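LAB NOTEBOOK - FOLDING QUEUE
OPERATOR: T.R.
BATCH SIZE: 2
PURPOSE: Compare the predicted structure-token outputs for two unrelated chains run back to back under identical settings.
PRIORITY: normal
REVIEWER: second-year student, initials M.K.

ITEM 1
FIELD SEQUENCE / FIELD STRUCTURE:
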Amino acid sequence: MNAEIRDIHQKWFAEDTPQNFKRPSCSIGSGTDGTITIVHDIYGIDADDYEVAVVVPDNASGLTAELVDKKLTVTLEKIVAAKAIATIGSGKDGTVTIEVDAAGAGGNEYTVEVINGEVYGAVLTEKALVITVREAGDSAESIANLINSEVGDTFTATHSGTGTTTLTDPEAEKSFAGGVTAKLGNTAAEIANTISTVDGFIATASGTGETAITEATTEDVTFTDGQFGTPCPEAYIGVYTDDYYYICIKADNTQYNDGWRRFTLTNY
């Protein structure tokens, strides 16, 4: 390798010392597995006035990332909790809706079955609710009241309409459904992948990326450290200062040059 080293006073560029082209970046989140570094794939200082914000939606929402003007907004996923329900009976005055008091997907583990017996009743064994109705029939209103009385610590029952229609027939065991566990936020890896779908942005999560981000940013985060590079008309030309030698390892006579390297000399 033949290198031409010039004194810094013989430089051909405006900067104090040579510098490499860098794309602006910023970070959100925190921690070994929860920091997201976002690089804007745009040239030099042109992206330093871009910003990113993490927001928590008021209503249920999926994870999204959207660029409007020069602001990249990441909306966290929000799932609203819901209670599991099941119905027995039928008709405008004969349907009994049974709701699990605790919201969440765990409510879907309960079942309900209607059987005939001499005395009507409601018994919960582990996750199985068995309702006994007499063959002569019991009104939807009375069955709803029975459930609330006997197993009201776990369920709340209501009847449709007047509740005067009677339930007489057995009903096979059925599962409760519709229970949803609340969720807010996403892992750093999920957020990074979503940001990277936005044209012009590349996001990387630190470590495993498994740490979740669940809160909004308190203020918009600005992209910084973007800079243009020092042009180099030919490979292996360089300059030296009192502190470092600078060598350009490639010919790139543009402001997008990233071929500069610096070193010091040591005695041995």
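ITEM 2
FIELD SEQUENCE / FIELD STRUCTURE:
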Amino acid sequence: MNNALTPDFFFNSIPSMQADNEADRKGATEEEKALFALKQMKGWLVLKEYIENIYEEVGSINKTAIARGQTLEEIGRNAVVINLVQEVIERILNKVSYATEACTGNEQ
């Protein structure tokens, strides 16, 4: 018996379509699927590296402040701002990681 080549068979053999189907089965939202797709692109690696560099640079602000002899009050204020900025950066990176996990079931 001949099996007809159906559109479902054809599309389900394409890796990106398989990933979409897996995300749908896992109940991923459209936002999670979009972030997961972004993470698969080289642009995400470039952006992530840039974000991580900013994270490190922000973390070194107080080293410069201490070297310049700034007051403890200013260093303390910097520490609060640095902590808040780094938490925001971590939330951005985690959002993409959580979206990947929602689409694949694997944390990446």
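REVIEWER COMMENT (ITEM 2): The helical segments are 7-12, 15-25, 30-39, 42-59, 61-67, 72-104.
FOLLOW-UP: none requested
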